[in-house]
Every structure is written in structure tokens, then in C-alpha cells.
Design brief:
This is Cell shape-determining protein MreC. The protein is an alpha+beta fold. Helix content is about 40%, strand content about 25%.
Length: about 290
């Protein structure tokens, strides 16, 4: 009866039942005599090893990708931190360079030859005039420091201009680059006299009233001549940069590069007559 019922079942079902029955029989024998199946068990485990390793590959890939992402993120953060430190270091270096440059400029100013006739009063440029068309700067020294209208101001390289207004603690300096300013000069090489005028810009001056027959050359140095008593003699004013002869008149068109620094000059020297200072000091004492 049972074999006939079993025979009527589908082939796949019959195979499954046979495998289960054989498996149960083998399990029963294994429980009774485990040593019989040790060689089979060892061989089976060895054969399954590659399958086990393949099954772990997704987990390994996940851990590797996670670690790689974390490593990249850590490197990115470290890179950003290093960039920030570099920017801060560069900013500090810029400040140190500025301080060193200012120190060098101060040493240059203070080492300027002190003429016997003048005291050199160190002043700082603290502002510019509100009229942008004028070449005027404001100094931090005034009447209380002995600054007077008409005094000449220089830097370590040459003439800057003259004091035009004085207040108790400040003063206004008209630069020789102003269009309304002029300086009597001498060509140092030949001794020829001429007039230098400003052009309203801090990088150029003009040498006027020089005849075409005059012996002037590019590179000639111009120094103050002292004529008129406005600016003392012997201070550098500029150097001839370009000469052009025009057909309109008998004079040459001559451009001059200023000797002094009119762009970023932070410290200047006010020339104060020693005799005047001594006389004022005697008056104040009396």
C-alpha cells in the first residue's frame, strides 16, 4: 500500500524524500560512530573553505570602503588644517616683513647726515589732505614740537616738501609733486641751474626752462640749489628720466623721477634751524 502511494508521487518529491531518508540514516550512524565520518567531514570543510571566503567578500568590501572613506575624510580635514596654519603663518610673515621694512626705513632716516645748521625732527605721516587734487599730507608733529611754516621736510632719499600749516600737535606738508610747488635745483654734473615743478602725481616731476643747447643727460642727478631761501641747498630732488626736444620752442621737455618716496613714506624728517630753535628756547626760558 505505502510503496504504491510513494510510487504515485512526482519524481522530484520522491528524490527529495530519498535524500532526506539517507541523510537521517547517515546522521544516526554519525551519532553512534562519529569516527567513521571524520575523513568525510574534513574533506567537506576543506571543500567549503573557498565558499566561506567568497561569502565574506561583501563584508570585507564594506569595511574597506568605510575605512577608505574615513581615511579620505581624515586626510581632507588634515589638509584643511594645514592650509589654515599655512595662511596664518604667511600672514604673520607679512607682518614681520612690514615691521622689518619699517625698521630698516627708520634706521636709514636716522642715519641721514645731520647738517650742522639743522636739527632733524622725526615725524610720522598720519593722513592725507581732504582735497584729492592737492599733494598734501598730515604729520603728527606741530607747534609744540617746534614745527613752523616754511620748514623743509625730507626723507632718507631726498626732498619731500615744505610745511604750509601748523597746529598745536599736527602740521600739513605740501609735497614738491604738487602742481603749485617748485624747487630751485642744480644739475650736479654740470652745475647748471633750473627749476623743478610738480605734476600732481607722486611718481614724476618736470624740469623747466632748460634750453635745447644745454648739457643735460638722462641719469643726471638734481639737487636743491638753495636759491630763494625756501629749501636748503644740497638735498637730492630727483634724477632726469626722459628728455624730448620739441619744435615749438627753444626749451626741452624733461621728465624727472623724484628722489624721495612719495607713495608709502611713513616717517619723515623736519629740518629745524638750530639758531631759531636756540633763540626760541632762550625766549621761553626768559
Amino acid at each position: 500500500m505505502i510503496p504504491s502511494i510513494f510510487a504515485r508521487q512526482p519524481l522530484a518529491l520522491r528524490k527529495t524524500a530519498i535524500v532526506l531518508i539517507v541523510a537521517l540514516i547517515l546522521m544516526w550512524f554519525d551519532s553512534k560512530n562519529p569516527e567513521w565520518f571524520n575523513p568525510i567531514r574534513t574533506t567537506t570543510h576543506a571543500a567549503m573553505q573557498p565558499i566561506y571566503e567568497l561569502s565574506l567578500l561583501p563584508s570585507y568590501a564594506k569595511h574597506w570602503s568605510s575605512g577608505s572613506l574615513q581615511s579620505k575624510e581624515a586626510l581632507r580635514r588634515e589638509n584643511m588644517q594645514l592650509k589654515s596654519q599655512l595662511i596664518h603663518a604667511q600672514a604673520k610673515l607679512q607682518q614681520q616683513d612690514y615691521i622689518l621694512a619699517q625698521n630698516a626705513r627708520l634706521q636709514g632716516i636716522l642715519s641721514t647726515t645731520r647738517p650742522e645748521q639743522f636739527d632733524l625732527n622725526l615725524a610720522q605721516v598720519i593722513g592725507t589732505d581732504t582735497n584729492l587734487l592737492r599733494q598734501i599730507v598730515v604729520l603728527n608733529k606741530g607747534e609744540q614740537d617746534g614745527v613752523q611754516v616754511g620748514q623743509t621736510v625730507i626723507d632718507e632719499d631726498g626732498v619731500l616738501g615744505q610745511i604750509i600749516n601748523v597746529y598745536p600737535n599736527t602740521s600739513r606738508l605740501l609735497l614738491i609733486t604738487d602742481e603749485q610747488q617748485s624747487v630751485a635745483v642744480t644739475v650736479k654734473r654740470t652745475g647748471q641751474r633750473a627749476i623743478v615743478t610738480g605734476e600732481g602725481i607722486p611718481t614724476s616731476l618736470r624740469l623747466n626752462y632748460v634750453f635745447k643747447t644745454s648739457d643735460v643727460r638722462v641719469g643726471d642727478e638734481l639737487v636743491s640749489s638753495g636759491l630763494g631761501g625756501r629749501i636748503p641747498a644740497g638735498y637730492r630732488v630727483g634724477r632726469i628720466a626722459h628728455i624730448e626736444d620739441t619744435q615749438a620752442d627753444n626749451f626741452r621737455s624733461i621728465e624727472v623721477t623724484p628722489a624721495a618716496n612719495f607713495i608709502d613714506n611713513a616717517y619723515v624728517l623736519v629740518l629745524q634751524d638750530k639758531l631759531v630753535n636756540k633763540r626760541n628756547a632762550d625766549i621761553s626760558e626768559n
